[in-house]
Amino acid sequence: MTNQKSKPTKDRGGSHGRRTFLKAAAATVTLPYLIPAAAMGRGSNTAPSNRIVMAGIGIGNMGRGDLGSFLGRDDVQYVAVCDVRKDVRDGAMNRVNEKYSTNDCKAYNDFREIMVRDDIDAVHCATPDHWHAIIVIESCRHGKDIYCQKPETKTLREGKLMIDAARRYSRVVSGGSQRVLEDYRKTVDPCWNGDKGIIKSVNVNVGPLPMDCNKKGEEIPNGFDWDRWLGPAPWAPYHRHRCSGSYSIDGTSWRSFRDYSGGGMTDWGAHHFGGATFAIDVRELEPEEVIFHNENGRKFATCRYPNGKLLHHNYPDRGNLEVEGTNEKGPSKPVPSYAGSGGIYGDFIDCVKTRRRPFRDIKYAVHTATVCHLFLIAYELERSLKWDTEKQQFIDDDEANRLVDVARREPWVI
Amino acid sequence: MTIKETIGMTLAAGAATVAVAQTDSATLEKALETLKTYDWGADREALKPIDQAIIATHDDAAARKALEKSLVEVLAGGISRSAQDYVCRKLRVVGTAAQSVKALAALLADEETSHIARYALERIPGEKATKAMREALPKVNSKLKPGIIGSLGVRRDKKSIPVISKLLGDSDIEVANAAAQSLGLIGTSAAAKELSKFAKKASANMKISVADARLVCAEQLLADGKKSEAAAMYKELKDDDQPSHVKAAAMKGILTAAIKK
After folding, report:
1. Sign of the dihedral through C-alpha B47, B52, B57, B58
2. Which of A25, A52, B46, B246 has the fewest CB atoms inside 10 Å of its own CB, making it the most exposed?
3. What is the domain-level CATH number for residue A376?
4. Left (φ > 0), alpha (ψ -120 to 50) or beta: where does A218 sit?
5. A21-57, pLDDT tens digit by residue?
6. Is residue A250 part of a domain?
7. pLDDT, position A240
8. Do A234 and B115 touch (CB under 8 A)?
9. CA triplet A286, A277, A183: central angle to 5 degrees?
10. Burial of B143 (0-12, 13-18, 19+ CB in 10 A)
11. Do B154 and A212 make contact, defined as CB atoms within 8 angstroms?
């Protein structure tokens, strides 16, 4: 793999440039948030020099949609795209260049070439899940803000590393899932309005669990960098189902398989558990226990939060996002929302400008994914587990602690 | 004693869990046999009795030991890459220093198996697994070195600091970057010293990774109560010729160290 440096294609510096400003800001200790020069260009008809300069990494399927959403904004300027499929990255590059009627957008196979470009303020990442932590952390190291698709983590250990990197460099790091705020208002609003009274629990029904993939190899399509697609995951032969970005979780897409995803538990779980934890207002917390139930072969589980609230998975005879509360009228509190305009994408861009934390700040996004992973490990081991939120370890369970992370294939280290 | 005999005895003694009772030892034996010819494209369901045996033997040390022994024997017996992949994944959960480490260590220098061996070794507790990777490091090629360095970093192996430090100056940028990152993860005073020393001569293409490693290292020092060492490291970074976001992170670190009790 290369580690070559690309020269910035566009100089956004000068006396009012972002880097100059950062330097001055650092010297005067205006911490923790620093404002890019692009922030000066808010509003319509934003001057190109004041737009948020962006790149997209992983731009097939979901990434294509993300790119479209950011590309449609006049306060964003795309300059680079990255994908391990040549046809995908070339298509995205052409789409961007046609939009701007320029040839400024460059296409890369190796995301690290985007990282070293000083002209890029922010990136979005929609690779398969096993790449998320590496790309988020690397973006923060290079001073870039990042919007990362859900589920943000592949393992429990990755979550803390991602939050730490975001906070270390005061980066705006937004998780994905527009559904958390937009799709579950019938559940969220009664909880925040006080109509549910004191909330005891919420149930989520999602699945299935991830599976192993032992598919026989097929010929690697031309222009597909298979080794880089695998990245930190264990080597395996190419098979179209192994890497298909389709949204199926039935063994015909990467979302089905353990090495690249947590299956339906994390893929849909990122939405539903995100909505559930938002509804019962435990986004700041992590569960301290996951209780595994096996009632006559019917398996389900419950996460218990330090404040006593319960988050069930597949609880018998409970509906999806069914909230259990005391139902007497309680105090109402305003439901948090996005900043800016344009949904979750606008929220991210606005936060890049204002240096506020986005609605799906990486901490909340990681906590959602953590719930998914705790359930996955409890189901894998078929037992209840206690989770030390400080140490990020299971208590008195050596075997469960082995599942907190996976060794990454060389050369990837986090 | 074979796995069949061991699990059979466990069942007879009535000490097994309900799950163990559900695990048919003959089925398990068959699944272990299947591994010997298992390859890409084979039905993964055929190995399910092994998955179930792992759950079933959680509270049964003798049965677990026998299961691990059987898996190690299969691994050492010359099996396909797909079967090696499967066995190493299982040893990640049930592997022990006593039985698995030697067989896994034997796979570390092979490009086809090095990672999947670490997949188990990195997660097996104890010095023996760490030592196996530490000792393998000088013997493996440059392609494999970053992986082993990374695993030693994740395990925060202080004894690896001398050998990893030497690799900071490696001509292979992947090796050198992995060395920096791992020293940051190890996060001791000795690791900090090595990183600071190297930072003065680090090439431009290592600037970010070394700076990040120093910040990560300083955070670990701070978490371990070594306030003054962490503060000194932050100060070095603030005063260095660093990108602005790194300087800002260092300033933030200085403030954090100052108010930490």
Report:
1. positive
2. B46
3. 3.30.360.10
4. beta
5. 333 333 333 344 444 443 333 334 687 778 999 999 9
6. no
7. 98
8. yes
9. 150
10. middle
11. no
Instruction: Write the CB contacts of A51 (distance below 8 Å, at least 6 apart in sequence).
Output: A38, A41, A74, A75, A76, A77
Q: Are residues A75 and A98 in the same domain?
A: yes
Contact A411 B245 (CB under 8 A): no
Residue from A138, A168, A295, A296 whose CB has the most chain B CBs within 10 Å, to mutate? A168
pLDDT in tens, A285-305: 999 999 999 999 999 999 999
- Among chain B residues, the shortest Cα distance to A379 is held by B55
Range of the domain at A98: 18-174
Residues of chain B in contact with residue A119, where contact means CB-CB under 8 angstroms, are: none
Burial A388-413 (b: 16+ CB within 10 A, else e): eeeebbbeebebbbbbbbbbbbbbbb
Measured between beta carbons, the chain A residues lying within 8 angstroms of B187 are none
* Residue A165 belongs to domain with CATH number: 3.40.50.720
Q: What distance separates the 2 farthest-apart alpha carbons in chain B? A: 71
- Residues A73, A104 within the same domain: yes
Domain match, A331 and A204 both: yes
**Confidence (pLDDT) at A47:** 78
| A212 Cα distance to chain centroid | 23
In angstroms, the CA A160 to CA A239 distance is 32
Q: Are residues A97 and A198 in the same domain?
A: no
Dihedral over Cα of A141, A145, A148, A152: its sign: positive
Single-letter amino acid code for the residue at B196: S
Q: Which residue of B has its CA nearest to A390?
A: B223
pLDDT < 50 regions, chain B: 1-21
Q: Tell me what pLDDT residue A50 has.
A: 81
- Domain membership flag for residue A388: yes
CB of A19 closer than 8 Å to CB of A118 = yes
Ramachandran category for residue A318: left, alpha or beta (phi over 0 → left; psi -120 to 50 → alpha): beta
- Asked if A389 and A313 sit in the same domain, the reply is yes
A314 and A381 housed in the same domain: yes
Query: What is B141-261's CATH number?
Result: 1.25.10.10
CA distance B239 to B233: 10
Q: Hey, is the C-beta of B153 within 8 angstroms of any chain A C-beta?
A: yes
Q: Does A147 lie in the same domain as A78?
A: yes
Helix (H) or strand (E) holding A53: strand A52-57
Q: What number of residues does chain B have? A: 261
Tell me how many domains chain A contains. Answer: 2
Please name which of A392, A319, A397 lies closest in space to residue A157, comparing C-alpha atoms: A392
Q: Name B78's Cβ contacts closer than 8 Å, sequence gap at least 6.
A: none
Instruction: Kindly state the tokens that stand for A86.
Output: 């040549």
Instruction: Identify whether A231 is part of a domain.
Output: no
Give residue A230's pLDDT band: very low, low, confident or very high (50, 70, 90): very high
Domain residue ranges of chain B, discontinuous segments joined by +: 1-138, 141-261
Q: How distant is the alpha carbon of residue A105 from its chain centre?
A: 24
At residue A3, the pLDDT reads 35
Asked if residue A238 belongs to a domain, the reply is no
Tell me which residue of A353, A273, A370 sits closest to A313, measured CA to CA: A273
